[in-house]
Amino acid sequence: MEFSSDYNEVIEWLYRQLPMFSRVGAAAYKPGLDTSIAIDRHFGYPHRKFKSIHIAGTNGKGSTSHALASVLQSQGYKVGLYTSPHLVDFRERIRVNGEMIPKEAVVNFINRYRDSGYDGHPSFFELTMMMAFDWFALSGVDYAVIETGMGGRLDSTNIITPIACVITNISKDHTQFLGDTLEQIAVEKAGIIKSGIPVVIGEARGSVKDVFVQKAQECGAPAIFAEQNLKIPAITSLEKVEVAPGRYIRYDLQGDYQKANLRTVLTAIGMLRDTGIDISDTALSDGLQNICSITGLAGRWMKIADSPLVIADTGHNEAGLTYNVNQLQELKAQRPGCRLHFVIGFVADKDVKHILPMFPTEASYYITKADIPRAMAVEELEQLCTQSGLGTTTFKNVSEAYTAAIHRATPNDIIYVGGSTFIVADFLASGIQTARL
Questions:
Q1: Dihedrals phi, psi of 205, to nearest 5 degrees
Q2: Could you tell me which of 228, 186, 222 has the C-alpha nearest to residue 207?
């Protein structure tokens, strides 16, 4: 491709020349920091021009990143936010004060990269990360919240020296890259802990906690475990959360799994205050009540409709889906005569055999696949569902599956769309959730 001023051509080049893990899987995975260090040097170390907060974890790092960015932005700071993957628009990955990076800035960066004489071979994630750091530096952000892509120790983002780190939790996911045990995965996540840099650990017990304690001690990094933070009252309801003495809010993210995430966020806010960052109680309340509108976050226990109740959620591993299925069962019990309808699909490298048994047999399943090469074939998923006693109907795409669910559901039923981030992405991109069916 010659240099182009057309955004769509540039994005197509990115996808074609630099395969991204989220779409094609292991073929695009490239661990190690050598390329990140080299391309960072080539672009003049842009990440050194702003203060950063580094977020890792198996689940909840996206929600936690957006929540922290929302609070900082509510205080009046200019805030960069780098997350992955995107749902509908590539530019969701790179935001400043909630606004996606302009198309012109994407085009400009890619053309600069191609004209720069850089002779390395960055991955999609490495080049996208550098685009984010470059844009944050050009935008003059005060703080950037940086989410790891996978793991931590060898993740491309681990070239930064943050002012604080957060590790949300540890559960089994991407075991082919990070290790087969929770302890091995914890070692990879703990790799973002830096010398003397404070770190908040969201959820960790037993031998997993020991991994973080040992790493923090080796680095001389003050470690705060959110579960042991006595300054935060027990969070039993997200509808009424005490965020300061006598100050209550409704937390913007309502999935049950957010109770642990919120405890981590509140502990992290306390840590940031201790480092000298001014965050008022008003900014804290405003930020936590308006995360989605301030940052553009989507796909986290996202209510699409009330009758039938339609929920879309990007939870995609055993830990995340356990929370979601349990919450759906609780909602079902509150709606007499309610039946659950699942519009689901998975990626081919997911350990679905350990996930499907948690789904209720007394429900309707609409099996489909996302429009990415990495998606699991509907025939394979159908067979696995049958082995788990789940009655299914197959559909070639998410729109057709959701249309069937809407037509079969009664007004008192519940429809859940998920299983994979990319099922939710296709669902939102289709616009079918707002169409009259």
A1: -135, 160
A2: 186
Q: How far apart are the first and last CA of the chain?
A: 42
Cβ proximity of 269 and 64 under 8 Å: no
CB-CB contact of 275 with 164 (8 Å): yes
Considering only the C-alpha atoms of the chain, give the largest distance between any 2 of them, rounded to a whole number of Å: 66
List the chain pLDDT tens, one digit each, 437 residues: 456 689 999 998 888 775 554 444 444 445 679 999 999 999 999 999 999 999 999 889 999 999 999 999 999 999 999 999 999 999 999 999 999 999 999 999 999 999 988 888 888 899 999 999 999 999 999 999 999 987 788 899 999 999 999 999 987 554 454 556 888 889 999 999 999 999 999 999 899 999 999 999 999 999 999 999 989 999 999 999 999 888 999 999 999 999 999 999 999 999 999 999 999 999 999 999 999 999 999 999 999 999 999 999 999 888 889 999 999 999 999 999 999 999 999 998 888 988 999 999 999 999 999 998 889 999 999 999 999 999 999 999 999 999 999 999 999 999 999 999 999 999 999 988 765 45
Exposed (0-12), middle (13-18) or buried (19+): which is 24, by Cβ within 10 Å? Answer: middle
Residue type at 30? K
Dihedral (CA of 175, 176, 178, 181) sign: positive
Query: Rounded to whole angstroms, what are the CA distances from 407 to 132, 263, 333, 402, 410?
Result: 42, 39, 22, 9, 8
Q: What's the predicted TM-score (pTM) here?
A: 0.93
CA distance 261 to 103: 32
> Do 181 and 215 meet the contact criterion of CB atoms below 8 Å apart?
no
Distance CA 57, CA 307 (A): 35
Q: Six-digit token pair at 244?
A: 């300061």
